[in-house]
Design brief:
The chain is α/β, with parallel strands linked by helices. It contains 12 helices and 18 strands. It is globular.
């Protein structure tokens, strides 16, 4: 039996471990991909930390990870439209294909979604097997590094492109990797003022490089003062909530213009309270975001990257896979953007 190196959640405790595991066996409609680059996601940190969510969700032992790029090594007998040697990434949400939304072409709303590296073996390995319908070919304009972060870029794109941004004033709460990449997308799409808030100066600095009009550390500055500085008199037109912070969300609601639109990607605590009068009397529209539209978001991402969208400032660290622990350590400090692990 052929084996491979892989990062495995092999114990029900904090940590992740490098092990030799069998190379996955693929079915008729699957693709075996030789992994070149992977990226560490916030989800992977939850799994590493073995928090309450991870304990309730992750089967042990299992290969984890879901952000990657690589090359097709083998094809199932029924696979069409792909070829050996194609450079690819893949959608990490595997959908059922038979529920109402799947049959209507709205796979991102599948009620039976399972996640690569969450509910089924992932990509932190020399090889990963995924359904051919989840594979996305990379153009020459997309490097292996950028190809490995299309999953979080897709979250940013799905969120940011939910509403018209041309000439609009945009407030982004949360400057994590997805929030900072949403800055670049909003700038690329023609927004006027793009203001992003956080408590982390390191990440706010990256957001500045990605095109923010103004970055705001809310522990040091008031958003009202920044709005006045930008001569904003009516509030923000579009809000992108990326932080999962009740305080940030409440401030966003207060600073939205009447008739504004908010896309919610951050996961707020169960007991989050807001002033619903803000929603009702301002006529705000709220939209929940989960994952990426399959595959419209992927085509939008690819097209933007081919037309000079530059998200490379969001990639701050690279490590060879044997140094994976250093990658997880730096991610856990919060003093990073995207961290790439090199399997070549």
């Amino acid at each position: 039996m052929k084996t491979m190196k892989a990062l495995v959640k092999s114990k029900s405790e904090e940590g992740i471990w490098m092990e030799e595991v069998p190379v996955p066996q693929c079915g008729h409609n699957d693709v075996l991909i030789k992994v070149k680059k992977t990226a560490i996601c916030g989800t992977d940190i939850h799994i590493y930390n073995w928090d309450k969510w991870a304990q309730q969700t992750i089967p042990v032992p299992m290969v984890v990870g879901h952000e990657f790029s690589g090359v097709i090594e083998n094809l199932g007998s029924e696979v069409q439209g792909l070829a050996l040697g194609d450079r690819v990434s893949a959608e990490g949400h595997v959908t059922c294909g038979h529920c109402r939304n799947c049959r209507a072409g709205k796979r991102h709303l599948c009620r039976n979604t399972i996640g690569v590296g969450v509910n089924r073996p992932g990509c932190f390995a020399e090889y990963v097997c995924v359904p051919a319908s989840n594979v996305f070919k990379l153009t020459d304009a997309i490097s292996d590094d950028v190809g490995s972060i299309l999953d979080p870029l897709g979250n940013a794109a799905h969120t940011a492109l939910s509403f018209n941004l041309v000439g609009e004033d945009v407030l982004i709460t949360g400057a994590g990797p997805i929030g900072m990449m949403a800055v670049a997308i909003a700038r690329h799409a023609g927004a006027r003022h793009i203001v992003i808030t956080d408590l982390n100066d390191y990440r706010l600095d990256i957001a500045d490089k990605l095109g923010a009009t103004r970055t705001v550390n809310v522990s040091k500055e008031k958003l009202d003062d920044v709005m006045a500085e930008l001569n904003m008199t009516e509030g923000f037109d579009v809000g992108l909530e990326m932080s999962g912070s009740p305080a940030a969300f409440r401030e966003m609601l207060a600073k939205m213009n009447h008739g504004g639109h908010i896309a919610l990607l951050g996961i707020l605590p169960d007991d989050t309270q807001i002033d619903w009068n803000m929603v009702v009397f301002k006529g705000l529209k709220l939209k929940g975001i989960y994952g990426r539209e399959m595959f419209e978001t992927w085509y939008k991402m690819s097209s933007m990257l081919q037309s000079n969208l530059d998200i490379t400032p969001a990639i701050t660290h690279h490590f060879k896979i044997d140094d994976f622990q250093k990658g997880f350590d730096v991610m856990r400090t919060g003093q990073s953007g995207k961290v790439i692990l090199d399997w070549t």
